[in-house]
């Protein structure tokens, strides 16, 4: 039977949600854990926020990613690294059937229901929706490096930070 060295940490993988981050070469990841309330004997959601090393800048805000613990901390804050993107933000695909999903329904079944009962005039049309990345430089600036305004100085307006 092997015993772990108390000074070393076991490598483990976690599934997380990518958030906007100001750090270079790092992504802010929200990891959901279930915490047991011993009085009610029920599990409740508890979120842990970590920074993961992402030198290739693979993940964008909204992606579901697989992160791994680093054997030792890279910096004071960076404790994980991004392994791969499981679900990019946008169209969700069922991994077993390969069909596109909206909440708990397949899009094919939604189309059949709409054919039977008729479509709503204000329903969202998934077929004509643009793919992810069509709003870059218009509304989505997650591909650009963030600039932080540290102080307001009337002599130095810092136009690049606004």
Automatic annotation (TrEMBL):
GO cellular component labels: mitochondrial small ribosomal subunit
Domain of life of the native organism: Eukaryota
InterPro entries on file: NA-bd_OB-fold, Ribosomal_uS17m_metazoa
Sample GO molecular function, one term: structural constituent of ribosome
One BP term from GO: mitochondrial translation
Ranges of biased composition (kind: Basic and acidic residues): 134-154
Membrane-spanning intervals of the chain: none
Gene3D superfamilies: Nucleic acid-binding proteins
Annotated stretches, region: Disordered: 125-162
Descriptive protein name: Mitochondrial ribosomal protein S17
């Amino acid at each position: 039977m092997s015993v772990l060295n108390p000074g070393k940490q076991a490598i483990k993988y976690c599934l997380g949600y990518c958030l906007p981050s100001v750090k270079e070469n790092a992504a802010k990841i929200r990891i959901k854990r279930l915490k047991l309330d011993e009085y009610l004997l029920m599990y409740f959601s508890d979120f842990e926020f970590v920074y993961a090393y992402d030198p290739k800048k693979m993940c964008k805000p909204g992606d579901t990613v697989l992160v791994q613990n680093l054997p030792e901390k890279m910096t004071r804050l960076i404790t994980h690294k991004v392994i791969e993107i499981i679900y990019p933000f946008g169209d969700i695909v069922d991994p077993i059937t390969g069909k596109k999903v909206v909440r708990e329904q397949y899009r094919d079944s939604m189309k059949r229901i709409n054919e039977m009962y008729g479509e709503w005039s204000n329903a969202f049309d998934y077929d004509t929706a643009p793919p992810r990345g069509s709003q870059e430089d218009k509304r989505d600036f997650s591909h650009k490096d963030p600039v932080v305004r540290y102080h307001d100085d009337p002599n130095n307006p810092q136009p690049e930070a606004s």
